[in-house]
Amino acid sequence: MAEARPVPAAMLAPMAVLAGLCLVIGLYPDPFIRFASQAAATTWHGSAYLAALPTGGMAR
Asked: pLDDT by residue for the chain (60 residues), tens digit each?
């Protein structure tokens, strides 16, 4: 079995960014909850959602 080696910074940086984002969302969730609520409200009515689709809601 091979020995573990240190991970390059190019692999650590994305994980650090995602960990920081998780921390920010966990500590300050209000803006993200408001954004998600607005997105959910716009898709609640199926006709408005289907009209916004590029195909106009018609399956091809």
From this structure: 789 999 999 999 999 999 999 999 999 999 999 988 887 877 776 676 677 777 655 555
Tell me, what amino acid is at 52? A
**Would you list the domain boundaries of the chain?**
29-60
| Token pair for 59 | 């399956």
Q: Which two tokens stand for residue 31?
A: 């803006």
CA 28 to each of CA 33, 40, 45, 51: distance values in angstroms, whole numbers, following the listed order: 10, 20, 29, 34
Cβ-based neighbours of 14, under 8 Å, separated by 6 or more = none
